[in-house]
What does this fold into?
Amino acid sequence: MELAWLWLLGAGLLATVHCQPFSALEDKSLGVPQAPSVRLSDPAPTYHKITPVITNFALRLYKQLAAATTGNIFFSPVSISTSLALLSLGAQAGTQTQILEGLGFNLTETPEADIHRGFQSLIHTLDLPSPKLELKVGTSLFLDKQLQPRRHFLDAIRDLYGALAFSANFTDAASTGRQMSDYVRKQTYGRVADCLRGVTPDTLLVLLNYIFFKAKWKHPFNRYQTQKQGNFFVDERTSFRFPMMHQKEMHRFLYDPEVACTVLQIEYSGNALALLILPDPGKMEQVEAALQPETLRKWGPLLLPSLLDLHLPRFSISGTYNLEELLPHLGLTSTFTLDAGWWGITGQLNQTVSRVTHKATVDMSERGTEAGAASGLLSQPGSLNTMSAPQAHFNRPFLVLLWEATTQSLLFMGKVVNPAAG
It folds into this structure.
């Protein structure tokens, strides 16, 4: 029986730093991109201090993206927030505060050191090997060979974020960009490509965070039940025929009349969950406005298991964003100016972070085969013949939230407006 697999790939955050000319310094402290992966020490599990903040940041950033586009949305809040928190280690005190408060942290309640230890705990936990869930998070820092990075900064990003630092020749921007893209492609098993198009000869530093996630459904779809020509309604005037996966299975779901949406939780074989939010026709903006952390908390205990007649499109979408245009609306107002002060990285003045690019993709389909899965599909006797199962037709725009269950971290978030748009 064919199983449904989920592929998620975040070519994380690309922060490109430019600076005004200064004397070239010989850099002998960095390695080359064949260095082994850094395994973080086993910190105390303090990720609970930061995961609610990441969720809140995700919802705020989503609303900025939704206001800026009418199409599909997909991004990784874990990737973006991890990269910005790491970058704050190289900024002057005022910029550090602005970045961390822009992410949503209250520095009176959670000191800066606790925030970084929380990220250390989160990355360590997410990166633990699991036989049923492939999840890989990594950060790499590429510095131009003329820079002399501060040892304190390199030690901090390695110990807290597991980040590797590499020497790069940005004078040959095309070749170096290809080498970094190849590096990311290898780290994500060939699934993330062409994520470094912003590299130019005056680039001095690239901070790249990637996240790779692969999981299979706990209750797999049968590809033979996929309706090859189901209807998907983009809006009241636009619809088209599109492959719709189908199953009758036990899932947790609810209908919230106040918000005007159906909420469905689908489990994966590992410690991962998908939360799909289907607004009533014409109610997407109302649902987006209601997306708050307290709304998600309210839904949690109300999601009750029931046999469900589920129709879900087989889709593949992606998102690529220049976040320097959006992050100032979240409080990071001077992060991308000369006043930011990034001398904590190299000791040099007149540096700016000029680009913050994020790319992520998701592929939800029936790919992957595993013998014996039919017993799981048929675990509810008579389910395939039950006529009274409530229906959930995801045949119009809906929201997708992907969670890692142990840490309660929101790995990915997005909106499927047009599953055929890619």
Remarks:
- The longest helix spans residues 51-68.
- The chain has two domains: 5-215+317-363, 219-313+390-416.
- Confidence is low (pLDDT under 50) at residues 1-39, 367-387.
